[in-house]
């Protein structure tokens, strides 16, 4: 995960922890019966848990999308490099074969000249 993703996750965790602590402290100091306060704390904790799951799902989807985008871009770039190298190889191979054939003809001509002398 990138540094930006770690920072975002840390900020998100800090915000959720701060919100949970604030809610719990507010409820504990509220002038209500203990049973009612515990029920509210439990409900709020469940709400926060659900919010955290939703945020995790959203962040997870974004990371998967980014990975998919990066992966596609990398594959496309690798294919382009491979095609460029193959095209260059084919171009120079044909030139080398052509030059080699010219050299062979020149050598054969020289040998024929030497035999005929």
From TrEMBL:
Pfam families: YtxH (PF12732). InterPro entries: Desiccation-related_membrane, RRF_sf, YtxH. Keywords: Membrane, Transmembrane, Transmembrane helix. The chain crosses the membrane at residues 12-30. It comes from the Bacteria. PANTHER family: GENERAL STRESS PROTEIN (PTHR35792). This is Gas vesicle protein. It comes from Chryseobacterium ureilyticum. The lineage of its organism: Bacteria, Pseudomonadati, Bacteroidota, Flavobacteriia, Flavobacteriales.
